[in-house]
Amino acid sequence: MTCRELIEFLDEYEAGTQPPEVRAEFERHLRVCPQCRNYFKTYRDTLVLTRAARGAQGDNVPDDVPEALIEAVLAAQRAGGAGRAGE
C-alpha cells in the first residue's frame, strides 16, 4: 500500500468497513511509515475535535491536541455553518 492509497482508505479504516486483508495492509503500512502515522493521528484528532465541537456526548478533546488545530476546526465549522444558513 502506498501513502496515497492509505489516505484514500482513512474513512473506511476508521469506520471498520475494510475487508480484513485491506485492513491488515493498512496497519502494516502504518507500522513502517512515520509520516502516515502522524497524518493518521492528526486525522483521528480532527474527528474527535469535530465531534466534540458538535456537542457529541462522551467525546473529549485529548490534552495533547494543539490549540491551533482546535481553532482551525472551529473556524471551519463556523464558515461551513454560515454558508448553509443562506441556502
Radius of gyration: 15 Å
Count of distinct structural domains: 1
User: Structural class of the secondary elements?
Assistant: mainly alpha
Question: Which parts are unreliable, with pLDDT below 50 for 5 consecutive residues or more?
Answer: 82-87
Shape: elongated
End-to-end gap: 41 Å
Order of helices and strands: HHHHH
Classify the helix fraction into a percent range.
over 70%
Tell me how many strands there are: 0
SS field, number of helical segments: 5
Roughly what is the average pLDDT, rounded to an integer?
80
Strand content: under 5%
Largest sheet: none
Summary keywords:
mainly alpha; 87 residues
SSE blueprint and pairings:
Blueprint: H1 3-8, H2 10-15, H3 20-32, H4 34-53, H5 67-85
Helix pairs in contact: 3-4, 4-5
Question: Could you walk me through the main structural features you see in this protein, from its secondary elements to its overall organization?
Answer:
- The chain is an all-alpha fold.
- The protein has one domain.
- Helix content is 74%, strand content 0%.
- It contains 5 helices and no strands.
- α3 packs across α4 and α4 crosses α5.
- The radius of gyration is 15 Å and the shape is elongated.
